[in-house]
Design a protein that fits this description.
With about 110 residues, this protein is an alpha/beta fold. The protein has a single domain, classed as Glutaredoxin (3-Layer(aba) Sandwich). The protein is built from 4 helices and 5 strands; from the N terminus they run βαβαβαββα. A 5-stranded mixed β-sheet has the order 1-3-2-4-5, covered by helices on one side. A hairpin with a 2-residue loop joins β4 and β5. The longest helix has 16 residues, at about 35-50. The protein is globular.
Length: about 110
């Protein structure tokens, strides 16, 4: 689980909403510069929180249904799901420390 896994509209329910582990979903697109900036930070958090956090990547161009369902209007948007519910939302590039302040309290 140390690396982000691809999730789609079809697999979102099973992989994210039914997950017993808190799951961070990175809503991104290939053409998005800030998404490329945030990706290494998300990868690092995924490695450091292996076993405590699942990290998934959802391409908004290919999976518009899920992005629309969660009101993703700009990317990158990271949404942390716990017990099938969104509990935190991070929009735009943020330093690793800022992301951890929002994510880590939900992992205990």
């Amino acid at each position: 689980m140390g690396i982000p896994t691809v999730v789609t509209d079809e697999t979102f329910n099973q992989e994210v909403l039914k997950s017993e582990t808190p799951t961070l979903v990175d809503f991104w697109a290939v053409w998005c510069g800030p998404c490329r900036m945030v990706a290494p930070v998300v990868d690092e958090i995924a490695r450091e929180q292996t076993g405590k956090l699942k990290v998934m990547k959802l391409d908004v161009d290919e999976n518009q249904g899920t992005a629309m369902a969660y009101g993703v209007m700009s990317i990158p948007t990271l949404i942390l799901f716990k017990d099938g519910q969104p509990v935190e939302r991070i929009v735009g590039f943020r330093p690793k420390g800022d992301m951890e302040k929002k994510i880590l309290p939900h992992l205990s």
